[in-house]
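Input set for joint prediction.
Command: fold jointly, output tokens.
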Amino acid sequence: MGTLNVLVGVCLIYVVFLFLIAFAAERAALEGKGGWLRSPMIYTLSLSIYCTAWTFYGAVGYAARSGLEYLTIYIGPSLVMIGWWWLLRKLVRIGRSQRITSIADLISSRYGKSNLLAVGVTVLAVIGTTPYIALQLQSVTVSFDVFSSAYGSELTEAAQGSNALLVAAGLTLFTIVFGTRNLDVNERHHGVVMAVAVEAIVKLFALLAVGIFVVWGLGGGVSETLARIDASEIGQWQMRGDRWATLIFLSGAAFLCLPRMFQVMVVENENEDHLRTASWAFPAYLMIMSLFVVPIAVVGLDLMPAGSNPDFFVLTVPLATGNDALAMLSFIGGFSSATSMVIVAALALSTMVSNHIVMPIWLSTQSVGASVSGDVRHVVLLSRRISIGAVVFLGYLYFRLSGGGSALASMGLISFAGVAQFLPVLIGGIFWRGATRTGAFAGLTVGFVIWAYTLLLPSFGAGTLVSETMLAEGPMGVGWLRPQAFFGITGMDPLVHAVFWSILLNTMSFFIASLVGFPSPLERLQGAQFVNVFEHSSTPQSWGGSLAQTEDLMVMAQRIIGAREAQNLFEREAKRQGMSGLLPEPSPDFLQRLERELAGSVGAATAHAMIGQIVGGASVSVEDLMAVADETAQMMEYSSRLEAKSEEQARTARQLRQANEKLTLISEQKDSFLSQVSHELRTPMTSIRAFSEILRDSDRLSEEEKIKYSSIIHDEALRLTRLLDDLLDLSVLESGRVNLNLQSGSLKGILDHAVSSALTGAGTSKVQVVRDSQQEEVMLYTDLDRLSQVFINLIGNAQKYCDASVPKLRIEVGHSTGALVVDFIDNGSGIPKVEQAVIFEKFSRTGEQRVKGAGLGLAICREIMTRLGGTVEYLPGQGGAAFRVTLPEEAALAAQ
Amino acid sequence: MGKNVLVIEDEPNIIEAISFILSRDGWSVATHSNGHDAVGVVQASMPDLVILDVMLPGKTGYDILRELRSEDATQGLPVLMLTAKGQVKDREMAERAGASRFMTKPFSNAEVLDAVRELVAG
Amino acid sequence: MSAKHNIPFLERQSYRRRRLIDTIRMLPVIGAVLWAVPLLWRQSEDSGTVLTSDAIIYIFLVWLLLVVGGGWLAQSLKRSNAEERERGR
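tokens >
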């Protein structure tokens, strides 16, 4: 009895120790010193809640009954962990980026935030977990019982019950204290995780200690133990292949889908990199955990009297060999396994129950106004606490009602098969965008109905919930619906049968219903975010508590006002708050400012609703927001169309303005041209009119005067004619309607003709023309008359404007690159630089040497040369005025 | 009478015509044919009337007129402007610059004579 | 100039990384296949059946292989990630 007291004492000390550990961890995390809390090893150890009392005690029993089959339960999760890159990585990323709180939350979020789906998953999870919790309570109670009976004090059933109640109450208290201390957005519980990690070490250490004791203390070393194994009743490899494969699959699936596993693996994950370490460290943990199971089983079978419960060999073997300390360690190990499972399971389930069942009900009973008030947090915490109590109590109730019988032992795998029904929906949800809510409902419903029908109900034994006749002949005699022989396929192992059909039909229903249905926009959005999570979230760094909200605000702000704008805004604010980095604290005035900023883009009401949605306290549903966003998008599209239209109009207006400017310019040019023409016509006409009036009115004119004035009239009339000719010529040339009269001729001939024409009637003041007839021996093929016109004009200009006392004009012929050039250089003072640019314009005349001429000559020359494919330019720096006529080589070559 | 008229015009034939018409009527006519120093010539000779062409080499008739109007001595000097550009805006330009009379080429000799007489008398 | 020299080096690095991830992907498949081998063992009552001790040794050797392999790959990936970050900087 003394030892029993010590046991109770040690137990209490251990519990107090766990409380202290959890408390210290919470405190360290709160003070921000908990770096060691976030190590990958802690994460790995926390995963060990997979190994419950069922593992600690049950695995040995399992091995004693079925040989190596128990290994499948650990091989499945090992494969899942080793294959972390495929699935867990994505699951964790989604969990973190979508702020997932539980597996129910994940499934409901993925399928359009359907609360009905969440409620369904929650209920199923509770159904699947409650027996499991009961199993843990039973294991603690029974192990205590084993201990006490070993010391000759049988416990009454009432005492057992009160023991279980005590344990349940303690676990509830612990979970409430450390599971609902605060309402963290990220749902992380450092205290709980730390305690679980410590318990993981304790149970591993305890099992190793027993194993080592058995192998080296009792078995006599490794080889002897192996020989003993082969000699035992499980010494031959006896394995049904279907069970081996099915169980590996099942345990892997359960590892992913168990609510408590999801809690530690995804929700409590601090850093995605931890998964990388856990991917090999956790399989190693499982390997070590299962290493000594068979030796303990074999030695137990040898050592213990026939008919003793192999489930407690871990405890009874040390006790039977008088190793009390080891037995106590073993008890603590089993206790750790049981309690850590219950704590995390209660935590995970309470989150689901509270978030998806209690809170919606509570909110619906409140008036609309109250739901926005500040005490929602308080309500949530209360609801969590009540849920924890309810979940643990449910487990206790199950334990009491089932009488702690052997029915519990098989609950492990049945429970696994139940939660494995989440697998198709889970995998489909994160890898297939086409998966829909309808599909999820269909799959889950079909899966669970078949699971209950083929596995759960028959498990209570024929004749209890399922009648013998129904098992044997099917419901109402429909043979192919026999619970353990669907479609008349008999001889299958009941578990394999149930898992096979439930998962197969579950998957098929899920798939087909998804194909047929049409998802809502929200569902499609969520689907895209889940499936493409690696494209959507590029920052796998861990969140700070409230900064996570800021990050969400940033994401939203970026979508609305553009990435750069939003980043600038946030950075400015962070700087203003004196923080480094991009993310400021979501202080009230920052939120207000952000809201204002967003209101500029989407309107005040929407901005308010959107920010409210992220920082909480809003009564707007996401559906509403989606609708609003849709409308906003439509409006934006409409206004951008308008904008495009007005832009087009602006473009047209611009073009019109340009055209108008051009027209104005042309009109101005025309005006100025007409004005010039008018001036040029009026000037000679003035002289003509004045002198003709003089001739008419004056009778006292001398004969000499009469002749002089008549000749002035004559000259001015000629000038008029010339002007009109020039104008017509220019107009024809400019319009491009000129017909070139191409013919061959020698350059010399053209120049001869031009010189004589230009100097006709010049009298004695003829300019002296200097030529080199040698150079001029070039044959041309061009419009000779037009070319001659150019030459005449140039020679005429020299004649008119050369101001040298003995005017001379040199005509030089030469070849430039690919062209024939003819230069006309006089020995006058030339043309000033400023005027060189305008001499080819119409009506431009140089300097003050006003000689009769309209100033159209050079303009005409330029037009002609353009038509002939050449140019005429002023040649500066030649002493006098110099013009260069350039003819294309073709004109010269063609004639040779 | 023997009043002095200064003709500023660059077209030799027109100078000759105007000189002939006015000298026959008894005016003494001086001529000048470029814009550069026209103002100086006017100030130096102080004629009773200036006949001023618009399109002059070196400086336009408008500029010359504006300069004359800005000087006290020549502020009230009668100026008859001649232009070969017959548009409305040219007339306006002339009036703004301060022309006493504006005539478009080609003019009739009688018209010029009447204008000259009127301007010098008034 | 130096950037040009670096390009093949970078590509080689990211190529190695991709192949490393391929290996990580393959590891569970290898594990599944190796652990499926017991399905082929003879189940009859006669003397040719596999002894439990041998089965234990085989299964745990596979386990050890996966743990060591997984550990090594995880370490390599961590190094590769660190290098990636360094280059990204």
